[in-house]
Amino acid sequence: WMGVPSKGLFNFSPKVRPTPLEIYFQSFDQSSFSSRLMAMAKPVYNAVVRHSDGKPVIVFVPSRRQAQLTAIDLMTYKESVGEGSFASSNKDPNEITDIISSLREPALQQVVTAGIGFVHGGMVDSDWECVTNLYKEGALRILVCPADLCWRLREVAHLVVIMGTETFDGRERRYVDYPIADLLHMMGKASRQGIDTSGKCTILCHTPKKEHLKKLLYDPLPIESHLDHYLHDHFNSEIVTKTIASMQDAVDYITWTFLYRRLTKNPNYYNMQGTSNVHVSEHMSEMVETVLGDLEESKCCQINDEGDVSALNLGMIAAYYYIQYTTIELIASSVTAKTKTRGIMEILSAASEFSTLPIRYGEEKNLQVMARNLTHKLPDSAQFHDANTKALILLQCHFSRKSLSTDLRADQRMIVGESISLIQAIVDVISSNGWLKPALATMELSQMIVQGLWNKDHVLMQIPHFTKEIIDRCEGYEGDEPIESVFDILTLEDGVRNDLLRLPDEKMADVAVFCNNYPNIDVDFNVQDADDVVAGDPVQMIVTLEREVDEDEMDEDEINQMGLVAAPLFPKEKREGWWIVVGDTKTNSLLSLKRVSLQKIQKVALEFIAPEEAGDYNLTLFCMSDSYLGCDQEYSVPLSVAAAESEDEDDTDEE
Length: 655
Known about the structure:
By secondary structure, the protein is an alpha/beta fold.
């Protein structure tokens, strides 16, 4: 398959490693997960003392909470026998004290003094780097890490202790085994090449799982393909790029995959009845028909009687934004001409992309408490063990700027970061239907997501460090001009501004950065041949966007940074985007839409079909930001449409 001759193939036993690995199993009979973890606490300490030989140790635990508890337990056991701590004597104590004082978490500060560190997914980046650097330098001998972060952790050790081989899955509401690939990766951390002659790994597990784990870890592990579970989105992308143009092309596409190679090697795994050519052919044909049938049903593609496949609009949108076909189907079936911001928010949070959000042990109760104080009530069908309900709650908390636990904050950052491409897809689906008001509501939702505010909040709340008290002072200001927008903050005298804001210099610098980045855009438009517009004919409008900046006073870096969004609550770097929309507010019809990026100046040509009936129309041109609240612009576009020459000629043209 890969062009490697048989003499070039060799299957290494799992026991063959660059650094030999000694594996120790210890099993526990307690049937309750919590009791089992409590019983493992002292054996973890014993394993560290017995096998580490004073060298670095990594302990993998099932959850973030357990990481903290295990670190404290290890410290307590060490102190109880009067042997001091695991801390290294090589590091200057004053330097360690300075580092400890910079850590955010009190529990972490406590255990680091004892030579133990722990990390977790909700930890701030500075703490993570601090702890891992101390571990690398040898100041910490033990590092405790949740198992789900084993792929993120780069550090290695002489001894790895795996405390339990199960973790809680909130979506399934049960404890599930670690994936075998994760277990092998954790074991592989006990390998300091060039330093140790051998590594050691201790696995603490439930007694009934011991023999099963031994077989999985000692015997060669067959690698199987899961492509058949994800074929829909692959096929959709290939149909859009015209790689797949027929049923036969789809079958040929599969023959070039690892899945095809494994079908005959392990037929039971793929629910095949046999391994003959007929069985393989039937299985692949059925697979292709099912996948293409699903795509056709979701209106992502169409299939004619000859078996030719072609992409439809929804399929193109899904492929362009890397969105699952189930999400685009949900969007298309849920949006209506009357959908408002709240409806768009519910559609967004129901996306399949968020269905993999973890639901941790005990998190359902927290979500129920948070749901009581939401701005918009949850739908009646909401279930708190459902990841999409969690996404909706965390989105609303983002707009209300509520404080969250570290784990939920990490989940919220993921949701907010993924939402922008989904929002753009929703806008495209709505514009395909020609609805104006839902499209504008979706664009406002994009601004809300980037700035972390409700659209009803005061626009000045976007500015970093602004509070309700500052805004009350701004609203009560009795100057020549009222303070209503970001631009008004810029035009104030320094003394007046300082008196109103009352912020220290470093916070004032953040305010200045935001205000200087806030876009001041001039919009100019021109309808081509405005006097000769005929009913049913194409109309072209040229729109020019120009940013008001003085380039003479800017250096090269500042010019390159132009268009970069100032958004402290958005987890990724973002550049401004603008939607240019022509619509008729009276009929709620969207006539034309384009999305553009803007550095200094941008010209956009919009084309739409003139109304079928002659008369005077008052259309509206909207210039909508995707990142900032309060800087959208709208202009009235009067349009006089003349009647077509004659109905007969129109009929002829249509034919």
